[in-house]
Amino acid sequence: MMSAAEQILRNHGLRITQFRMDTVQLFLLAGKALSSADVEASLRDSDRITLYRTLKTLEDKGVIHKAIDGTQVIKYALCESSCDEHHHHDKHIHFHCTRCENTVCLDHVFVPDVTLPAGFVATEAHMIVNGVCESCNRRMLLP
Ligand SMILES: [Zn+2]
Ligand SMILES: [Zn+2]
Ligand SMILES: [Zn+2]
Fold this sequence. Notes:
The chain is an alpha+beta fold. It has five helices and six strands; from the N terminus they run ααβααβββββα. The strands form two sheets. The chain has a three-stranded antiparallel β-sheet. The chain has a three-stranded mixed β-sheet with strand order 5-4-6, with no helix packed on it.
């Protein structure tokens, strides 16, 4: 049986390598955005060059996108299935929890359309909401 990670690589026309599969698998399981350091720490025998190339390839091919969260660390998260080599369609906002420092994609909450002054052309827009995530919030309410 084909794993979900393998399926994703195939859908994006990517050659299957163990390292790519392991990386995608990690994003599938994480449920949050991961930095390259997070990925490096979780994968055995990951040399840094291969890791950077892999993340770049996955981003270029529409498998992962940058989850810009206002911190200095670049994090990535899995894309919606409609992303491809030519376009990312990740118009959702990113939530950065100031307690656990996790950043998550809020897939169903979208960056609002903004009306720009005449002469301005937008190419991309990011929206970050800082605050307390659902699981931290639940923890705070516990006695
Ligand atoms: Zn995308
Ligand atoms: Zn949190
Ligand atoms: Zn996202």
